[in-house]
Design goal:
Strands 1, 2, 3, 4, 5, 6, 7, 8 and 9 form a nine-stranded mixed sheet that branches. The protein folds into two domains: 138 residues, Periplasmic binding protein-like II (D-Maltodextrin-Binding Protein, domain 2); 102 residues, D-Maltodextrin-Binding Protein, domain 2. It has eight helices and nine strands. It is of the alpha/beta class. Helix 3 packs parallel to helix 4. It is elongated and about 60 Å long.
Length: 250
């Protein structure tokens, strides 16, 4: 009697192992390239998306939008690109590396200062004071292009002590006291916690609003899943997450 029982046990173990291997092979990874300003909210969105799509792992890669676009052009594998401005997305679309993008959020700039505002920054013009150390995004990055536009329209000369490759770099410099002020997105202030405060630059031009587009990339191995993620942030639960995080509607 022992041999039949042993045979059955072996069959059960083999079947269990096969099922486990099958389940493992069915898991899919969705790689999303996203602008640095989306870091916190996209981590929450990724968790929500995974919960609604069992077997899917969302792998997030954050950096300045222009850096991500360059990586895509150079052949970096990814499924979705979420940029912080439409100009950067256009470079990827014109290279025929992305499908038609969809807007999913808007944002605007504010002045970030260290807690307590030690330099007494009150308005945009204060960023040009000789006693103020200012940090901005590099001009090729969306937040840098928008910063240059904002300062030029206000007639404020830009004299940054350093130019960062992403808005996260500006936020870090301000929060660590390496700079008296920097221009970041409104939604980034919360990321700085109690080490950073905001000073309203008092601008209301529609040109000061940045629009975020997302697109399925042409070389994706999971086109349906990538499209589902874009829908998730445009009209799905991800859109609500974005509004809660302070991003404007598209």
């Amino acid at each position: 009697m022992r041999r039949p029982v042993l045979a059955v046990l072996l069959l059960v173990l083999a079947a269990t192992s096969a099922c486990a291997e099958s389940a493992e092979t069915e898991r899919r990874t969705l790689t999303v390239f996203a602008a640095a300003s989306l870091t916190d909210v996209f981590e929450d969105i990724a968790a929500d998306f995974e919960a609604e799509h069992p077997g899917v792992d969302v792998q997030l890669s954050f950096a300045g939008s222009s850096d991500l676009a360059q990586q895509i052009v150079e052949g970096a594998p990814a499924d979705v690109f979420a940029a912080a401005d439409e100009r950067t997305m256009t470079t990827v679309v014109e290279a025929e590396l992305a499908e038609e993008p969809e807007r999913f959020a808007t944002n605007r700039l504010t002045i970030a200062v260290p807690a307590g505002n030690p330099a007494g920054i009150e308005r945009l013009a204060d960023l040009s004071r000789p006693d103020v150390t200012t940090v901005l995004c590099a001009p090729q990055v969306p937040c840098g292009a928008l910063s240059a536009q904002l300062l030029a329209r206000a007639g404020v000369p830009a004299r940054p002590a350093s130019e960062e490759s992403s808005v996260s770099g500006v936020l870090t410099a301000v929060s660590e006291g390496q700079a008296d002020a920097g221009l970041v997105y409104v939604t980034d202030i919360a990321r700085g916690g109690d080490r950073v405060a905001a000073v309203d630059p008092k601008t209301s031009s529609a040109e000061d609003i940045v629009r975020y587009p997302a697109a399925v990339l042409a070389d994706t191995e999971h086109p349906d899943l990538a499209a589902a993620f874009v829908d998730f942030i445009v009209t799905g639960p991800g859109a609500e997450r974005l509004r809660t995080a302070g991003f404007g509607a598209p």
